[in-house]
Design goal:
Elements (H helix, E strand, L loop, with lengths): L1 H32 L15 H18 L3 H20 L6 H4 L2 H16 L6 H5 L11
Protein name: DoxX family protein
Subcellular location: Cell membrane
Main location: membrane
């Protein structure tokens, strides 16, 4: 059973990467384009902290979705989410479920996982690297 599951690990990782990227991009599209609805606090100026965050969320999410430059982009996005949590959520309340920061924490740790694992299957990074196993699950 374990070897069967191991064979599917790169695909499960790819699904996690793709779904995370789509959810993350939605935060960027909301702040950049007002889609699917504008933020409650209004559209942020592009060169503000929220505007730069929106650019990172949309463009970084797009790169993670495609699996292009996954490790360095995931590192930057994990940092963005750590900053978002500690600057905006943690000061409101100690508990993430009460301060609204649980998504920031989850995004941060999923992106950290991608830093260490890479993109998984179905990625441009994977298509660009030489053939042959790089991880134990690819043998």
């Amino acid at each position: 059973m374990s070897s069967t599951l191991d064979r599917w690990s790169p695909y499960a990782l790819a699904i996690l990467r793709i779904v995370t990227a789509l959810l993350f991009m939605a935060h960027g599209t909301q702040k950049l384009f007002g889609f699917p609805a504008p933020p409650e606090i209004g559209m942020p100026p592009l060169l503000s902290l929220f505007g730069i965050g929106a650019i990172l969320e949309f463009a970084g999410g797009l790169l993670i979705l495609a699996g292009l430059f996954t490790r360095p982009i995931a590192f930057v996005l994990a940092g963005e989410m750590a900053v978002a949590y500690w600057m905006f959520h943690a000061p409101q309340n100690f508990y993430p479920v009460l301060n609204g920061g649980d998504a920031s924490i989850l995004f941060c740790f999923v992106f950290l996982l991608l830093v260490f694992t890479g993109p998984g299957a179905l990625s441009i990074d994977g298509a660009r690297r030489p053939a042959g196993p790089r991880h134990s699950w690819e043998r």
